[in-house]
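hiii, so i know i said id send this last week but things got crazy w the move. better late than never?? heres the sequnce for the chain we talked about at the cafe, plus the structure i predicted for it. fair warning i was half asleep when i ran it
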Amino acid sequence: MSYVVISSFENTASGDLQAEGEAVTVWPNEAAARAHFDKRERELAAAANAAREVDSGASFVTWLLILGMPLEVGSVEEALEDLELVLEETEAVDDPFGELVLAYEGRAYAPDRVDEYPRKLALEALEAWLT
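okay and structure toks below
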C-alpha cells in the first residue's frame, strides 16, 4: 500500500499558488505521509497568512488530504493514473474516493475570518482536476 498526500493552495480570484511538485507526493508508509501532511498543513497556513498580509482583500482556500492507495504506486504520475481509474470505476458518485481518504484538513481564508473548508468541495475540486 502507498500513501498519497495532495494539497491545494488557491487564491480564489487567480488560482493555484503552489510551486511545482508541492501538490502531490507519494509516501511508502502512513507514518511518513502523516508527517508530511502535518508539515504541509503548517506551511499552507503560514503561506495563506503571509498572502493575506500582502493582499488583505483577497480570499484563499487551502486543503490537503491523505489517500491510502489500494495498490503500491511508485510515482506521482502512477498515483494520478490510479486515482483517475478510481473515478472511472466507482459507483459512489457523491464520494468517489470514499474509504481512500485517511485524513483531511481544509481552510477558507476570507479577508476578515478563517473558516473550515468542506471536504466535499475539496474532493469535487480534486475530481475536476483529475478528469
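btw Residues 30-54 form the longest helix (25 residues). thought thatd interest u
miss u guys!!
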